[in-house]
Design a protein that fits this description.
This protein has 491 residues and is α+β, with helices and mostly antiparallel strands. Among the domains are: 11-179, no CATH class; 183-336, no CATH class. It is built from 16 helices and 12 strands. It has helices at 37-42, 47-50, 53-59, 128-143, 182-189, 194-208, 218-240, 290-309, 313-324, 326-342, 352-365, 370-382, 396-410, 417-425, 435-448, 452-461; strands at 19-21, 31-35, 71-73, 77-79, 82-84, 92-99, 105-111, 126-127, 150-162, 166-176, 242-243, 265-266. The strands form 4 sheets. Strands 2, 6, 7, 8, 9 and 10 form a 6-stranded antiparallel beta sheet that branches. The protein has a two-stranded antiparallel ribbon with strand order 1-3. A two-stranded antiparallel ribbon has the order 4-5. β6 and β7 form a beta hairpin. α5 packs antiparallel against α6 (194-208). It binds adenosine monophosphate (AMP) and magnesium ion (MG). The site of magnesium ion has 3 residues, from loops. Magnesium ion is lined by residues 250-251, 260.
Length: 491
C-alpha cells in the first residue's frame, strides 16, 4: 500500500515570486502521535495507509508523496503594528492542494518541517507542545462551528529542538482552505508589483469568493467579501471567549478562517481586557480589542488593493473607506444576534442590547466564568430552580436582579422552557479547551510521553455542546492554583 494524495496544485502554478520551491527536511525517527481520521476521509485520503510507517514519514516530511509540489509561500506582515516586508513560511511547507469531499480545495501544509529561504534566524522547526496546542484548539474551534484551519496529524520527529531547553520536535499537518493572508497581498504591495496583486486577487476570487466573479467591480466586491467574513469571524470568537493573541496581518486569513494558533487562549472568568500572550505587553490583542484590530488589518488589505480600484488615488481611497465602513455594522449585527441567542431570545426588541450589556457588566464585575454562565443560564431557562448560573457570580444577588428582568423578557415569547433550553445549549458550549487543561495535557505528553490525556481531551472537545457523562470535570474552570496566566508563541 502506498499513500496516495490526489494533489491538484494551483498555488505553485502562480509566478515564481509567490513562493520558494523547497522540500521538507528529513527527520530522524518519525512517529505518528495523532491522525485525524474523519478529516483524512473528508480529504479523500486513506486513514489506514496514513497510519502506516510510510504515512508517518510523509507527515513528518521525511518522504515527499507523489504529486506534491512543495513550496514555502512568500508573505509580509505587520507584527504588533510594525511592518516587516518579508516574512514568509519560515518553518512550513505547502505540500499541495486536494479537493475535498465537498468540492472545496484544501491546502495540506507541514508546519515545523525544516528551514526554508524565509526562515531568517529560525530553525524551521516546531516543538511538541505548541503542535499539540494547535491540534487541540483548532479542532475544538471546528467543533464549535467556527471557521478555522484544521489539524490532520501530529508526528514527533525523533529530534530535539532547542528553545529555552531541548524539547521534543514535532510536525503538524495543517489543512486550510488556503494559507493566503493579508500579509500575502502586503508582500507585493510593498514591492509595488501591481500585476502580482491582480494575479493574487484573481486567484483568491476564483478560490474563495466565486460569487464575486460576475460583479461589476470584482476587486471592490472581493474586499467587501473579506470584510464580511472577518467581521463574522471575530464576532464568533467573542461569542465563545476566544482570544487569538497574535492578530498580526500575516496571521489574518483572506478566506476568513482562524489561522495560526500560537498564544491563543479561551478566557475563563469574563474580562474584556483579558490578555494571555506573554509578548502582548500593550494588550493590543486583548479580547475586546479584536474587532478593532480585525478592521485595522482589513484596512491594510484595502491599501494593497487600491491600485486595482482606480488610477485616481483619491477615488480609490474613498471607495475603500466606503467598503471598510461596513465592518462595524456587520460585526455588531453578528455579535448582538449571537448574544441574543446565547441568552435564549428568539426575537429582537429594542431593550435587548441593554439587557445583554448589563449581564456582561455584572459578569465582569463578579468574575463570572464566561462559558459556564451561559451554559448554566440554559439550565435555568429549562428549570428556574437551577441556580448554577447564579453560582458563577461572586455576588449572586447581582445575578438575581438581572435574572428577574431576563425571565420577564423571555416570558414575552411563546417558546416552552424546554425549547429555550435546547436552543441555548446548542449555542453555549459546555466544553472549551481551557488553558489549564491544555497545559496539563501538553505536560503529560512532553514530560512522560503519555498521550492518554491528549486523546481524551480531543475526544471531549469534539462534542462541545453535549453533556458527556463521566467527563463533567472538563467543564470546570481552573482552581486558583491551576490558573494559567500567560501563554507563549512557541516559536
Ligand atoms: P508566527 O509567530 O508563527 O506567526 O510566525 C511569524 C514568522 O516567523 C513567520 O514568517 C514564521 O514562518 C516565522 N517563524 C516562526 N517560528 C520559526 C522557526 N522556528 N523557524 C523559522 N521561522 C519561524
Ligand atoms: Mg504566522
Amino acid at each position: 500500500m502506498t499513500v496516495h494524495f490526489p494533489f491538484q496544485n494551483s498555488y505553485s502554478a502562480l509566478p515564481d515570486s509567490f513562493f520558494a520551491r523547497v522540500a521538507p527536511t528529513p527527520v530522524a525517527a518519525p512517529r505518528l502521535i495523532k491522525l485525524n481520521r474523519p478529516l483524512a476521509v473528508q480529504l479523500g485520503l486513506d486513514p489506514d495507509v496514513l497510519e502506516t510507517p510510510e504515512g508517518a514519514e510523509i507527515l513528518a516530511g521525511k518522504t515527499v508523496p507523489a504529486g506534491a509540489d512543495p513550496i514555502a509561500m512568500a508573505y509580509a506582515g505587520h507584527q504588533f503594528g510594525q511592518f516587516v516586508p518579508q516574512l514568509g513560511d519560515g518553518r512550513a511547507v505547502l505540500l499541495g492542494e486536494v479537493i475535498d469531499k465537498d468540492g472545496i480545495r484544501r491546502d495540506i501544509q507541514l508546519k515545523g518541517s525544516g528551514p526554508t529561504p524565509f526562515s531568517r534566524r529560525g530553525d524551521g522547526r516546531a516543538a511538541l507542545g505548541p503542535v499539540l496546542r494547535e491540534y487541540i484548539v483548532s479542532e475544538a474551534m471546528f467543533a464549535l462551528g467556527i471557521p478555522t484551519t484544521r489539524s490532520l496529524a501530529a508526528v514527533v520527529t525523533g529530534e530535539h529542538v532547542i528553545r529555552e531547553t531541548a524539547l521534543p520536535g514535532a510536525v503538524l499537518t495543517r489543512v486550510a482552505s488556503s494559507h493566503i493572508r493579508v500579509g500575502t497581498f502586503q508582500f507585493f504591495a510593498v514591492r509595488r508589483d501591481t500585476d502580482a496583486i491582480r494575479r493574487l486577487a484573481d486567484h483568491v476570487i476564483a478560490r474563495h469568493y466565486p460569487e464575486v466573479l460576475g460583479a461589476e467591480r470584482p476587486y471592490h466586491a472581493l474586499l467587501g467579501g473579506v470584510v464580511a467574513r472577518q467581521a463574522d469571524l471575530v464576532a464568533r470568537w467573542l461569542l465563545v471567549g476566544f482570544i487569538h493573541g497574535v492578530m498580526n496581518t500575516d496571521n489574518s486569513s483572506i478566506s476568513g478562517e482562524t489561522i495560526d494558533y500560537g498564544p491563543c487562549a479561551f478566557m475563563d472568568a469574563y474580562n474584556p481586557s483579558q490578555v494571555f500572550s506573554s509578548i502582548d505587553e500593550m494588550g493590543r490583542y486583548a479580547y475586546a480589542n479584536q474587532p478593532r484590530i480585525a478592521l485595522w488589518n482589513l484596512t491594510r488589505l484595502a491599501e494593497c488593493l487600491l491600485p486595482l480600484f482606480s488610477d485616481d488615488q483619491e477615488k480609490a481611497v474613498a471607495e475603500a473607506q466606503d467598503i471598510l465602513g461596513a465592518f462595524s455594522d456587520t460585526f455588531s449585527d453578528a455579535y448582538q444576534a449571537g448574544l441574543r441567542k446565547k441568552i435564549g431570545l428568539f426575537t429582537e426588541r429594542d431593550a435587548d442590547d441593554a439587557l445583554i450589556q448589563d449581564l456582561l457588566d455584572a459578569m465582569a464585575k463578579n468574575q463570572a466564568d464566561f462559558t459556564l454562565t451561559f451554559r448554566k443560564l440554559g439550565d435555568a431557562a429549562g428549570d428556574p430552580a437551577a441556580d448554577d448560573a447564579r453560582a458563577q457570580f461572586m455576588d449572586p444577588a447581582a445575578f438575581d436582579e438581572w435574572a428577574r428582568r431576563w425571565h420577564e423578557r423571555t416570558a414575552l415569547e411563546p417558546q416552552t422552557a424546554a425549547e429555550r433550553q435546547a436552543a441555548m445549549h446548542a449555542v453555549n458550549p459546555m466544553f472549551i479547551p481551557r488553558n489549564h487543561r491544555v497545559e496539563a495535557v501538553i505536560q503529560a505528553a512532553v514530560n512522560d510521553d503519555d498521550y492518554t490525556p491528549f486523546e481524551e481531551f480531543v475526544k471531549v472537545l469534539a462534542k462541545p455542546f453535549e453533556g458527556q457523562p463521566g467527563y463533567a470535570a472538563y467543564a470546570d474552570p481552573p482552581l486558583p492554583e491551576q490558573r494559567v496566566l500567560q501563554t507563549f508563541c512557541g516559536t
